[in-house]
Amino acid sequence: MLSLTSVEAMSNSADSPAHNSETIEIRTPSLTDGADLWRIAEGTGVLDVNTPYAYLLWARDFAETSVIATVDGEAAGFISGYLKPTDPSTLFIWQVAVDSRFRGRRLASRVLAQVVANSGAGRLETTITSDNAASIALFTGLARDHGTEITKQDLFTEDLFPPQEESGEHHAAEDLYTVEPLKR
C-alpha cells in the first residue's frame, strides 16, 4: 500500500465552498488520531459508535485503507475501511464521518475518492440504512465519478441485530451497496 497524504489550500469558489482560505490535509490516520476518530464518530449522533479502543486499533491495523481529514490542523472527518480478507480487491467502507463544524466543504467525497485511489481496489462495498440519504448520495456520486453503477441488495436484516438496551428495538436493516468497477 502507498502512504496517502494530500494537502490542498481551499478558497471560496464554486467548486470548493470553503469559508475563507483554509488548508485541508487528507492522510492516513496514526495512533494519535484514534481519539479524534472516536470523537468525530460520536459527534455525528447517527453512527454506531465503537469503543475508543476500537478506533485506536483501527488507526493501527487499518490505517492504509482509512483516511483522516484535517482543516487547518483540526480533525474534521474520517473514513474507515479495509480490504476484505476473502477478496482483497474489494474495499469495504465501514464508517464515514464529518464533524458538523466542517460540513459543506465536500470533505466526505474528497476523502472517499482518496481512500479508494489509495486502496487500489477494483470494487467497493459498504452498508447503509435505507433512511441515510446522505450516504446513499455520497456513494452514488462515487459511482458516477467512476463511470459505473451502484447496486443495492439486502444484507443485514433487522432480526440479525440484538435488541437495543434502551428501547428493545432492533437496529435498522443495513443494505449492501456495491460500486464496481472502480477506476485504478
Automatic annotation (TrEMBL):
Q: Does the keyword Phosphoprotein apply?
A: no
The record, for Gene3D superfamilies, names:
3.40.630.30
Positions of the region Disordered? 1-22, 163-184
Q: What class of enzyme is it?
A: transferase
Please write the reaction equations for the catalytic activity of this protein. Answer: L-2,4-diaminobutanoate + acetyl-CoA = (2S)-4-acetamido-2-aminobutanoate + CoA + H(+)
Give the enzyme's EC designation. Answer: 2.3.1.178
Name of the protein in its database record: L-2,4-diaminobutyric acid acetyltransferase
User: Which source organism does the UniProt entry give?
Assistant: Nesterenkonia cremea
Taxonomic lineage: Bacteria, Bacillati, Actinomycetota, Actinomycetes, Micrococcales
